[in-house]
Amino acid sequence: MSKPNYSGTFHMVDQVNMDSYLAALDINFALRKIVCLLKPSKEISHDMATGAMKIRTLTTFKNFNMDFTIGEEFTEDLRPVDGRTCQTTVSWEGDNLVCVQRGEKDGRGWTHWLEGDKLHLEMRVQGIVAKQVFKKAD
Question: What is the pLDDT of residues 86-113, one digit of tens each?
C-alpha cells in the first residue's frame, strides 16, 4: 500500500503545551513567549518516488528548513532553534512520519500525520509533549 503524500502548504490553527516543550529545550523565557504567539505555516514538498522531503516552517520571526530522505540518518542543525545539533532519522510508522533526534536531550523527536485536510504535529522531549494542528491551504 502506498504512503500518503504530505506535499502542500498548511497554516497553524491550534497549539497545545508549546511553552513547556520549549522550556524543556532550555529556551529562555522571552523567546518562549514570542514563539508561543507565532502562527507558523508549513510548506512541504514530498517526492514519493525517492522519499526526499523538504519541510519549511515559516513565521514572521524566523524560518526553519529541514531537508531529508525518509529512512536515512543525517546531522540536523538545530542551532537556530536551541543551539544544538543532533543525529536525526525520519521513518514511516504506518502512514505517520516519525522523527527520532538523538543528541543532548533524551526522548527528542516528533510525529506528523494527516487527517483529512489537517496536518498534525506532536513534538516530544524528555517526556514533555506539545501539539500543533495545521489546516491545508485551499
Answer: 999 999 999 999 999 998 899 999 999 9
Confidence of residue 132 (pLDDT cuts 50, 70, 90): very high
One-letter amino acid of 74:
F
C-alpha distances in Å from residue 27, one per residue of 22, 31, 81: 5, 7, 8
- Number of structural domains (the chain) is 1
> How many angstroms separate the Cα of 131 from the Cα of each of 51, 100, 103, 111?
25, 16, 21, 10
CATH code of the domain covering residue 120: 2.40.128.20
The parent domain of residue 62 ranges over 8-136
Strand partners, 55: 44, 66
User: Most distant CA pair in the chain: distance in Å?
Assistant: 46
Of 79, 105, 84, 92, which is closest to residue 48 (Cα–Cα)?
A: 92
pTM of the model: 0.93
Give the integer Cα–Cα distance in Å for 7 and 133: 16
